[in-house]
């Protein structure tokens, strides 16, 4: 019994603490788990979690780890999920602050009205672009090219008269947004090399860009709806709402019922979430390993090739973790990209 327990401890994942009967099972786990230094981690036991929601469940969920839950309850920050050295430190604690503005970041927000026979088809009727100082650099109503059947006034505050005089066409709005994003860089060059092009931040960016009829290079998009640490705990990669993320990790309400929702508020919330994630203290392992700032990280087969199986099985759990890499670009790397 004791020897079996010792074997399990020897084959224990250094990130999630899962135990295996055989070393080969641990190696296979590392191939598929995608642990990395960029994972959210418990400040008490150092367990890696796939998302911040998973870390919150670990600390305060239905079945939290007792010692971690006790420490977090007495001296933990509910926003950044950090655990401070002493309870008194909470009074002076401030969540990790983002580095100084990079100057190459813009946030995009759109408000949709309804088209189609039942008003369920989203069409863009208002667009807003905000810089990293949270100043509006472009804002306009947009006149859809198809008839609007539901203005959704209760939430958008948009009336028919807003889309008549002075409203841009979707093509005009898209051209202006693209000019701001490219910042003088040629569109074809921005697809492979950033140059002067700006990072685009938002929530549900693909939906907003599609509504404007435009595209933007994926490596320059920072979408809070698709960033794994901000997604739900399930393996199905479900997005959290911007309203939830703003309350959970920034500590204030947006999109409150009974109030018209301005796209500026969505831009600022997404921008602040991006800056909070960019400020998280991670190891810059991708950069140290020579990976380009926007290049995809090595895949699991590259990090744990089958031909190295015997060598991998001789490694310790900590050495295997050093080889492991995430499957997404961590935004903390943007902080050293300028």
Automatic annotation (TrEMBL):
<dbReference type="InterPro" id="IPR036397">
    <property type="entry name" value="RNaseH_sf"/>
</dbReference>
<feature type="domain" description="C2H2-type">
    <location>
        <begin position="11"/>
        <end position="40"/>
    </location>
</feature>
<dbReference type="GO" id="GO:0008408">
    <property type="term" value="F:3'-5' exonuclease activity"/>
</dbReference>
<dbReference type="GO" id="GO:0005634">
    <property type="term" value="C:nucleus"/>
</dbReference>
<dbReference type="GO" id="GO:0008270">
    <property type="term" value="F:zinc ion binding"/>
</dbReference>
<keyword id="KW-0269">Exonuclease</keyword>
<dbReference type="GO" id="GO:0006364">
    <property type="term" value="P:rRNA processing"/>
</dbReference>
<keyword id="KW-0540">Nuclease</keyword>
<dbReference type="GO" id="GO:0003676">
    <property type="term" value="F:nucleic acid binding"/>
</dbReference>
<keyword id="KW-0539">Nucleus</keyword>
<keyword id="KW-0862">Zinc</keyword>
<dbReference type="Pfam" id="PF00929">
    <property type="entry name" value="RNase_T"/>
</dbReference>
<keyword id="KW-0863">Zinc-finger</keyword>
<dbReference type="InterPro" id="IPR037431">
    <property type="entry name" value="REX4_DEDDh_dom"/>
</dbReference>
<keyword id="KW-0479">Metal-binding</keyword>
<comment type="similarity">
    <text>Belongs to the REXO4 family.</text>
</comment>
<dbReference type="InterPro" id="IPR013087">
    <property type="entry name" value="Znf_C2H2_type"/>
</dbReference>
<dbReference type="InterPro" id="IPR012337">
    <property type="entry name" value="RNaseH-like_sf"/>
</dbReference>
<dbReference type="InterPro" id="IPR013520">
    <property type="entry name" value="Ribonucl_H"/>
</dbReference>
<dbReference type="InterPro" id="IPR047021">
    <property type="entry name" value="REXO1/3/4-like"/>
</dbReference>
<keyword id="KW-0378">Hydrolase</keyword>
<protein>
    <recommendedName>
        <fullName>RNA exonuclease 4</fullName>
    </recommendedName>
</protein>
């Amino acid at each position: 019994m004791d020897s079996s327990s010792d074997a399990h401890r020897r084959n224990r994942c250094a990130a999630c603490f899962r135990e295996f009967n055989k070393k080969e099972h641990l190696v296979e786990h590392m191939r598929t788990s995608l642990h990395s230094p960029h994972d959210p981690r418990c400040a008490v036991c150092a367990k890696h979690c796939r998302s911040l929601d998973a870390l919150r469940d670990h600390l305060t969920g239905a079945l939290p780890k007792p010692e971690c839950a006790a420490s977090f309850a007495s001296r933990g920050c509910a926003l950044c999920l950090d655990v401070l050295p002493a309870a008194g430190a909470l009074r002076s604690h401030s969540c990790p602050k983002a580095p100084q503005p990079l100057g190459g970041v813009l946030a995009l927000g759109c408000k949709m009205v309804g088209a189609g026979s039942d008003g369920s088809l989203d069409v863009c009727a208002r667009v807003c672009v905000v810089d990293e100082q949270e100043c509006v650099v472009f804002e306009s109503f947009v006149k859809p090219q198809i008839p609007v059947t539901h203005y959704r006034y209760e939430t958008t505050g948009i009336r028919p008269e807003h889309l008549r005089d002075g409203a841009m066409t979707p093509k005009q709005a898209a051209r202006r947004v693209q000019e701001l994003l490219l910042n003088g860089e040629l569109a074809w060059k921005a697809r492979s090399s950033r140059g002067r092009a700006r990072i685009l931040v938002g929530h549900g960016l693909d939906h907003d860009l599609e509504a404007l009829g435009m595209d933007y290079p994926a490596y320059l998009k920072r979408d809070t709806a698709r960033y794994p640490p901000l997604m739900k705990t399930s393996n199905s990669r479900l997005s959290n709402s911007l309203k939830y993320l703003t309350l959970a990790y920034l500590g204030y309400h947006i999109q409150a019922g009974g109030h018209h929702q301005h796209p500026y508020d969505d831009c600022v919330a997404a921008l602040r979430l991006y800056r909070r994630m960019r400020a998280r203290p991670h190891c810059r392992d991708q950069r140290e390993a020579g990976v380009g700032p926007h290049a995809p990280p090595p895949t699991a087969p590259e990090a744990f090739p089958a031909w190295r199986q015997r060598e991998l099985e001789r490694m310790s759990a900590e050495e295997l973790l050093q080889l492991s890499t995430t499957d997404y670009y961590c935004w903390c790397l943007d902080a050293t990209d300028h």
